Amino acid sequence: ILRHLPRRVVQLLNDSLVLKNNGSKSSRLDQLLPSELAALLWSLGELGIHCNRDDENSRLAHRKMNLVTPIPLLSTEEIESVSVSSSVDLFCGIIKLGYDQDDYPLLINNLVDLGNRADSLSPEDLYRVTD
Q1: Which residues, including other chains, have CB under 8 Å from residue 124's CB and lie 6 or more apart?
Q2: What pLDDT was estimated at residue 56?
């Protein structure tokens, strides 16, 4: 059952993707608090899931462990509101998932926040960021 859990999680997230009237996409990820999003992205990365928004068949993308759902862009204030550890989780999750061009603003905001709080990073967090 544990082999199928990551695929089922990806399927749930991919199936939640809906197109809004203005052409933008929305998913369950949009409903998460910043700290919850950070923990989920880190967990998905640890499970070996990858972002691939160009997957030809998004209904079957979960079989290849591909997340087609866009990662929400968190504001600077939202990123600053999470703990240092959650900020590290967010950074590591984005890197492990394999970010694309749409994720650059989130990655840059997260890196700026980590730079501003570098003196608060624990040795373990420093190791995770540089790993």
Answers
A1: none
A2: 60
Side chain identity at residue 39, one-letter code: A
Q: Which residue has the higher pLDDT, 58 or 88?
A: 88
Could you identify the residue written with the tokens 């959650």? 86
pTM of the complete model = 0.85
Q: How many CB atoms sit inside 10 A of residue 13's CB?
A: 19
H or E stretch covering 34: helix 34-46
The overall average pLDDT reported for the chain is 86
The answer to whether residues 34 and 82 touch, using CB atoms and an 8 Å cutoff, is yes
pLDDT at 39: 96
Separation in Å, CA 22 to CA 18, 19, 112, 123: 11, 8, 31, 45
Encode burial over 84-105: b for 16+ CB neighbours within 10 A, e otherwise.
bbbbbbbbbbbbbbeeeeebee
